[in-house]
Design brief:
Elements (H helix, E strand, L loop, with lengths): L11 H24 L9 H14 L5
Protein name: CbtB-domain containing protein
Pfam families: CbtB (PF09489)
Keywords: Membrane, Transmembrane, Transmembrane helix
Length: about 60
Amino acid sequence: MSGLSTPSTLPLPRLRPWLLLGVPVLLLVAYLVLMDNGAVSQAGTYLHELMHDGRHLLGVPCH
């Protein structure tokens, strides 16, 4: 059968800079969303509600 396709491979050397930048940013955002209990979002209720909804979106109980 000549119609079989070969699986594509991820170009890891091309993805490495994005992973090195993206993983710490992702971890920082997750930390802020999960640990914010008013410490970060004291500037207003909009940011607090955004963090609160983020916790619910991630399935973390908050109240």
